[in-house]
Amino acid sequence: MPGIKQKNSFKKHLPGWEFYLKFQVSGVEYKVSRSTDGGQIIKLDGEEIKQNEFNKKFENLLFDIPDDLKHLSFRSLLPFFIRPQRGSYVNFNDPNELGQPYQVLLYNSFLLGLNVHLVQEKYKLRTERERIKVLIKELSNDQLLKDFFAGNRDVSLATQDLADKIKKLESDLSKFNVAEDFYDIKKEADRLRIELDNAQNQVVLLQGQVHNIDESLKTTPDIKKESIERIYKEAAVILSEAALKKLDELEKFYEHLTSNRQKRLLDQKNELVRQIDAISEKFGKDKTAFDNTLKYLDTHQALDVFVRLTNRLADLKSEKENLERYDQLLKQYQDQKIKLDQKFVEETLKTATYLTEADGVIKDLRDFFRDLAKRFYPESAAGITVYNNDGDNQLRYNFDAKIEADASDGINSVKLFCYDLTILLSGYGHHMNLLFHDSRLLDGIDPRQVAELFKVLSDLILPTNKQYILTINQNQLDEVKPYLTADEYRTIIEENICHILQDDSPEHKLLGIQVDMEYDK
Questions:
Q1: Which of 39-48, 251-260, 336-345 has the lowest mean pLDDT?
Q2: Please, which pLDDT band fits residue 150 given cuts at 50, 70 and 90?
Q3: What pLDDT score was predicted for residue 1?
Q4: Is 44 helix (H, G, I), strand (E, B) or coil?
Q5: How far is residue 261's CA from residue 422's CA, in Å, rounded to a whole number?
Q6: pLDDT of residue 424
């Protein structure tokens, strides 16, 4: 399963090359070939087949995957038998380098023969629970519902309050009398109000002028002849007959002026009174028109007011519907949460029962792994453990393969070897007869343990139809040789060497040429 960089390197450095592989599955021999220029096309027994079709075919032949399980596939399970990358040798249970706990547990549970439906069911329950949490969080971020989620308001009370407001507004709108000319009539009323105010001001001014005229009429500005004589007498002045005659004429003149003044003032007063009467008469008519206009406006409203009220009614109804819908959703989520909690408990109990019933299967795996580990480290506790995980998470089992003090690189590699051999020889759900390890498996392992590794393979693989492939460097063979007898070295190693590669010339390399390949990792 080459990565993208590897595919590009094959195409770049080995154009036109075609690689062949012969293998057997359940006694049937297959021949597969693939060209570096062929893209996703593979030839199986001479016939072209797409890569996904190839994967599906051999998934069905090599693995007994239930139809109702997701994530399990040919590509996800094959790395447990052919660890493809450098990172595949870091964690014994994750050759795919996924780092996804659920999928890692699912793959291992399947190959160990554990109930994978229990694994999947808890994952589904947990996923559903998280989905509900997300939905509730989204609802809690809704501006309308923030107070309700904060506990400051009650949904049922708020809904009833909205229902009351809607009922009242609907009643008001049913009585609403719309006047399309509302604003024209209102404009006329404003004009009449201004004219009435002006008329009142004019009447007040004219009435003030009439009052001034009345005051003027009470005043007599003329001078009588007797008054003039008295003044002159007091001044000891003796008037001649001619002067007295002049005074008579002057008196008549002032009497004439006074008469003209009174007539003029009375004429002005009469004109003012006439104007007041005319303005008052018009004021009365305008007042009647104004009152009628106000009565009309009082019983008729503007169309846009009606529209605003209608929109307000729609908003209230929408708010009420949202509250009812959210309230219903919350109740559904609460019901679902209760059911999920119950289901969690049921699945936990079911798992506990299953693990008790499957103790024999688990014990066989544990014992097989422990027996292998004991051959390397007789004094170290070792085994495969499977416990019921009742926590609020996606993992059905707490699963581990352990060799005491396995944190060191060497012991971790031994653990990986023992685990892979356990899957191959005592695992379930597969028909694989092949196990491949790269030479990096041996890095950090003491040569004495490497020698024991070969002895284990001699005891468990050679007598069977299984195949174990190991790439190993010459220096590693040299280091292990002192810990094997000559007969062991010959029968276990020398007689089982398939191919020797050397770095003294390109011809002795794997492809017979020098190629600078790019690798994903």
A1: 251-260
A2: very low
A3: 46
A4: strand
A5: 141
A6: 97
Hey, what are 517's tokens?
A: 């390949």
Query: Kind and range of the H or E element at 294?
Result: helix 241-299
Q: What one-character-per-residue DSSP string does 77-93 give? A: HGGGTB--SGGGGT-TT
Q: Terminus-to-terminus CA distance in the chain, angstroms?
A: 13
Instruction: Decide the pairing of beta strands 397-403 and 178-179.
Output: unpaired
Q: What b/e readout covers 343-360, taking b as 16+ CB neighbours within 10 angstroms?
A: bbeebbeebeebbeeeee
**Residue 410 binned pLDDT confidence (cut-offs 50, 70, 90):** confident
Q: 139: buried, middle or exposed (CB in 10 Å: 19+, 13-18, 0-12)?
A: middle
Yes or no: say if 378 and 449 are a contact pair by the CB < 8 Å rule. no
Is residue 368 within 8 Å of residue 426, measured between CB atoms? Answer: yes
- Token pair 């004439």: residue: 256
Three-class DSSP category at 35: strand
Q: How does residue 140 score in pLDDT terms, banded at 50, 70 and 90?
A: low
Q: Distance between CA atoms of 259 and 225, rounded to whole angstroms?
A: 17
Enter the tokens of residue 47: 């016939």
Q: Can you tell me whether residue 465 is helix, strand or coil?
A: coil
d(CA 345, CA 339): 10
Separation of alpha carbons 226 and 228, rounded Å: 5
The answer to whether 351 and 391 are in contact (CB under 8 A) is no
Q: Alpha helix locations (H) across 358-404?
A: 359-376
Q: What is the Cα–Cα distance from 245 to 229, expressed in whole angstroms?
A: 12
Helices 241-299 + 225-234 axis angle, to 10: 130
Backbone angles phi, psi at 457, to 5 degrees: -65, -35
Type and span of the H or E element at 164: helix 155-174
Tokens of 438: 């790269």
Contact 453, 417 (CB under 8 A): yes
Please, are residues 368 and 425 in contact by the beta-carbon 8 Å criterion? Answer: yes
DSSP 163: H
Answer whether 46's CB lies under 8 Å from 61's CB.
no
Beta carbons of 491 and 454 less than 8 angstroms apart? no
Q: Is the overall model pTM greater than 0.85, yes or no?
A: no
Percentage of the residues of the chain whose pLDDT score is greater than 70: 76
The DSSP H or E segment spanning 296 is helix 241-299
The DSSP bridge partners found for residue 479 are none
Distant-in-sequence, close-in-space partners of 54: CB < 8 Å, separation ≥ 6: 32, 42, 44
Tokens standing for residue 215:
């005051």
Tokens 């997701």 — which residue? 70
